[in-house]
Structure formats: C-alpha cells, structure tokens
Write the structure tokens for this entry.
Amino acid sequence: MTTIASLHIGELAYISEESLNEIPLKLLEMGCLPGAEVELIQLAPLNDPLYICVNGSHLAIRKETAAKIKIIKAQ
Amino acid sequence: MSYKKTINVALIGNPNTGKTSLFNELTGLNQKVGNYPGVTVDKKEGSSKLQGNLKAIITDLPGTYSINPTSLDETIVLKTLLNSKSDKTPDVIVVVADVENLKRNLLLFSQIKDLEIPTVLAINMADQMKRKGITIDLKLLKNELNNEVVLLSVRKDPEIGIQEVKKAIVKTYNSAKAFPLCNVNNRIDPAYFDRLKEINPKYSIYELWLMITQNSFPDKISEDEKKALLNFKNDSKNLKKYQHKETIYRYQKINEILKKTYLADRSKATDLRAKLDKVFTHKIFGYILFFTLLLLIFQSIFDWASLPMDLIDTVFANLSSYVNKTMPTGVLNNLISEGIIPGVGGIIIFIPQIAILFLFVSLLEETGYMSRVVFLMDKIMRRFGMSGKSVIPLISGTACAIPAVMATRNISGWKERLITILVTPFTTCSARLPVYAIIIALIIPDKKIFGILNLQGLTLLSLYILGFTTAIMAAVILHKTLKIKDTSFFVVEMPDYKLPSLKNVFFDVIEKTKAFIFGAGKIILSISIVLWFLASNGPQSYTDVEKNIKEKIVSQEISGVKLNQMIASAKLENSYIGIMGKSIEPLIKPLGYDWKIGIALISSFAAREVFVGTLATIYSVGSDDDDITTIKQRMALEINPETNTRRFNFPVGMSLLVFYAFAMQCMATLAIVKRETNSWKWPLIQFVGMGVLAYVCSFVVFQILS
Amino acid sequence: MQEIIVYSSVGVAVFFLVKKFFFKKPKSKCNKDCDC
C-alpha cells in the first residue's frame, strides 16, 4: 500500500481516488483532494511528522494520518 | 445634519493571510479584546470610520480554514455566522485571502457566500505576486465570483489598500445583495436537500446543512424546529460522505474559476521558503538552532528585564513609604501603603519579563518560524502526552505560568491541552527566582569549579532543569493515568517566511500583557489585601504587643528605629498569620522549617516572591533596608534554638529550594487553570498533587542531608 | 470612617476570591472539543 508515509524527500505523487473515505474532512478542506499533487518536503526524526506540499498548501501532518492516504507515484 | 450609522463588519480568513495586520490597520488603537460569553476565546473588536458618516465595528474572528470547526475558536466563527438573524450579525464579511494560497482560501470564501451574507474578498500580500510568478485577472475574477474583490498589500501600501477595502465594504453594504456561489446541494443529492429545505424554509439550505452536520443552532431557533432537524439528521446515513462530496465540488468550482483568472508560473518564483526550510527543519541543525535560540531568549529576558525590575521595585518601595509618611496614620494608611501598594507592585514587577518573552514569541510567530518549531518538537512532545504546540506554553512558563496556560488554547486535542496546562506550572517561573537567589546566596559557596563554572549559577541552572524534567515526567504519568480519549487531529500549516510586522508584534504584546495584568492582577491584589489584614490584626496578644515590648526593654537603650522593628516583628508573630504559622509548625518541622518560615510560606500564596519580603519583616530587617545583603546577613545569623546552629543551613536551604520548585503556591495560576479547564477539579488536583510532591521531596531532601 | 473603608475593602477582596474559586460559570456551553 503506497501512502504519503512511504514517500521520499522530493518525491512527487498524486492522491489516489481510493483514499476518499480515509482522508479526514479537515485535510480535504485544506486541499488534500483525490487527484491533487503531493510532494514530501522534509521529515522530522523518526519520520514523524511529515512536511508536505499538497495542492499548493504547505502542511505538516503526523505519520498516522499520512499512512492512511493512498497515493500514486508520479512517473 | 449628520446622520451617523454604524454597521458590523467581520474579518474572516485562513491563518497567516495577514488578517490581523488588516485589522490593526483598520482599527489602529481603537481596538479592544474581550471575551465571548461562556468560552475562553478572545473577542477582538475595534472601530473604523468607513466613509462620511458611516462607521464600522470590526470584529476580528479567529482564523479558520473552513466554516466546519475543529477547535473551540473555530466554533465561534460558526456561531457568529449562523446567528444571521440577530443584531450581532455581521452586515458585511471581509474574507481575507493571500495571493499564494488563494485556492485554499477560496474554500472558506465559497462557504461564506453560500450563507448569502454580503461579502468582500480581500486578497492580501499582492506585493509578493512578482516574486512568486503569480498573475491575477482581477476584473474577470470579480465577474466570475460575482463579488467585490480587492487586491492589496497591507504591508507595502497600507493606505491605498485600506481605502480600497473600505470602498468595497460600503459598496457591498449598499447593494445588499448576496448570492450563493456553489449551490452544492444540486450536485450532491437534489432530492435530499429539497427535503431538508422543506423542514424549515426560514433558513437557507446551506444554513440548515451546517446546523445538522455541526450540531450547532442559531440562538433564536425553537426546540421544535431543532427536534425536526435532528430527526432528519438521524434518518440520514450519508452525512460524512456528503460533506466530503461538498468539499470536492467546492474545489472543482474554485479550480474552474481560477483556471481563467489565476496563473502561477513556478519557474519565475524565487523559493526562499524552501531554502530556509532546508536549514530550519534539518534533522540535526534544526534542533541546534532551536536550542541556541532558546538560550538566547532566556539570556535576553534576564539581561533586559533586571534594570526595569529594579526600577519598579524602587518606585513602589518609595511610593509605599511616601504614602505611609504623608497620609494620616491609621488603618487606611496601612492598608494602602502596606497592602495595596506592595500588592500592585508585586504584579507590575513581572511585566518586563513577561513582555520580553511575549515579544520573542510574537516575533517568532510573525516570521513563521514557530510552525517549524512545532514540526521539530511534535514527536518528542507526543512521547510525553503533549503536542508540538505545547512547546510555546512550556517556554512561556519560564516567565509566568499564567500567560503560558492561556497560550494552550490553540492545542486542538483536549487531553494534550489538559496535560500541558497541568504540567506547565512546574517550569521555573520568574517569581521563584528571588526565593532561589537568596537561598542559593545563603547556602551555596560563591566558588568556581573547574575554573570556569560558578557554583551558584550551576545550582540555579539545575533548578531550571529540575523544573523542566519534573514537568515532562508529570506529563508522562498523566498521559498514562488520565482516562480521556485522545481525540487530537494534527495539522499545522507551514506559512511562508516573512519579516515580522512590528505593528502586529506591538499590539500582540500589549494585548497579552494586559491579559496577564488584569487576569492575574486582581487575584494577586485581593490575596495581598487579605494577607495584609491577617498580618496586621490579631487577638488580644496582638494589641498588647507594643505595651509588652516597651515593658520588657525598659532598662535597655534601644534606638527608635530598632524599637519599631522589634515591635513590627512581635506584631507579626502575634497576628492571625503568625498564629497560622505557629499552628502549621509541627507539620513543617520535618522539612526543617519553623513557624517564621511557615508565615513566609503562607504569604507566598499571593505571589511566591513575597517570601523574601515576609522574612525581612519577621527578622526585623527594616523596610528601608530591602537590600538583599541585609536580609541575607540577618538570615545567616538566625539560630535554630533546638540545635543551636544556623537555621538556614544547607539541608534547610535545599529543602526550601525543592519545596518552592514543586509547590503550587500561586493562587492566580490556579484561578486561570480553573477558567481554562472550566472546572475546579483540575486546579484542585494540581494544588494537592504538587503540594504533596513538594512536601514529600522536601522531607526526603531534608532528612537525607541532615 | 477609615475602618469602614478598610474593612469593606477586605470584605470585597474576600468575596471576589470566593466567587472566583468556588463558583462555576453558569453559562458555559461545552463545545466540540471540550470532552468535559
């Protein structure tokens, strides 16, 4: 299962349609929508939290949240 | 003939859009901070002249990303907007957005529009457009959104920007038309929403939708109407799915509009943020930088605050003696010069430290660096049951726990927030310092070890470390024992770095300092008055003091000053507070204390640093002689009658240090904890828990060392 | 006269402290996040 938590720094991906029900409403409202582009910018020690850029918004989320959001890696 | 009219305007927007700057420019010094009834959220209001005879009361609502709330202050936004039929409703809403995050900002905008309240869109930070390669077709955007849109830069061109916003507000108010933007109901499930509308046609569909999804109802709604809506809600299983769909459709609409009107050419952008973030969030260097910054802040607080503090001390001491000598003698004179003036002085003297700390915190928040701190510290803090956002309260606690506890408001998980509130008072606040200073001076030799480290300074540092460590350990214990759901949902925006706006920082520091003065001030003052009363009155033995002393020393030659000091000391001994001190003596003897120290401990309930002044009175050190060396000398001479050695020896001193490190003596902090947690249970637990810890540890320390 | 002022100030202070510490705010709505 490829999720945001499995991204490497600088890697680009797209949020998969499958995750729709797993994404908390608040994240959705902040732009984390299916089809949106997401990039991993930085990781804190122990890979938690994750600093990502999704749909133009720069956010930090915890690993447990990131692990629920499936992605499709950009080729 | 001038006809003045006042309308209500509310500012809404995402955090970090410069909404506060806009508010400050619009209202200037005409702003005040109050409270929303029943909740601990600050209500910021100010007035502004719009045009001619039209004035506006501007409310700065808490920053939020969506009308759907996930925290207490976001709930305020929802309530304000749902009460659209009351007189407190905004006549016009200004949605503040910024050029870089326009897409996300428009989500909130679309929600507000759907409530059919007249709205103005103010897109801020226009000066950043070139730097980020952004172009906006303003005219087309106005058309597409069917709304007034202002493009401005509050920072670079405040006057022009403000004029444009005011013009737009007036125009929108006069046209009094408002149209929904998205009409999501049609796309999600027309039949469902038609049924919803039928239940209560008085409200718009979106209002009804918010009522059932958020369980939040306007004040004026009747119980029957509420019940009808709740029944409808219980029959529908799709709420969550529909909310998701709603958000997606909103963004679709926003994307359509932005495609025609907004262009961001990444190649033209200079990415300062990425460069700075590489350094500030670096796995190693990020932490080094942060801790260095912390040390710098602590150092600065001490260096910069000591001069104003000495000044304030002198002023109030002089004021006290002046009033004492000038006013006619009597109880009122005593109340004012010995109760009220020192009480007020005890509050004012902390302002330098608190203001400087807030200055730094505000600067760090304004630049955007604070989010990076939260990012770096979240994982570690979670180990201890707290959140990354707990860092600021814990740091602030080194100045004073009261504003620190208030700063926990933006921690969204209740358990994390509660734990932070409960453990913050363990951090070494500035009121403990005078106590530490004098005890350390008494029991720790002024020597250097290893040639460079001063022993006294080292002891002080250890006490700081003790405070932090205890806070962390207490947090871990609370995390394991408190049976509260862990409901936190963590999302932190990482805003672009920017130079701090000194105006914003200035207003912020003033606001927070005022909150401290009036919040803690009233309590400290009241307790000072009560303690003064207890110390200046007593049973018969109290009133007889003067006579008794004069009889005793009839044969000796004692100066007027010395005689007065003896009388003052004897009076204190026989006063109510003296009796209280004597009655707790058996309790505190195992810790190495006597009833005199007992009195000082009791008076520390007003404020910890009162300990020093109280001891001065007890040991007959003159009040003109508040010099610490005199008090120190006198304390060094005090003999324990039972052992015939120094009272303030090493074991007793260490015991006192430990006691003050752990005991919850600050009544003002307890009051604030009660307000912020909305119950007396938690401050009580705090008081008892910390008290027991202080007692046990001081006991152990004293017994082991002696 | 002086006594009256002094004793009433002390009385006000005590009353204020008791009110602050022992009475719950009557009108507080428990919002989403409280869990209280």
User: Anything to note?
Assistant: Residues 2-22 of chain C form the longest helix (21 residues). Chains C and A do not touch (no CB pair under 8 Å). DSSP finds one helix and no strands in chain C.
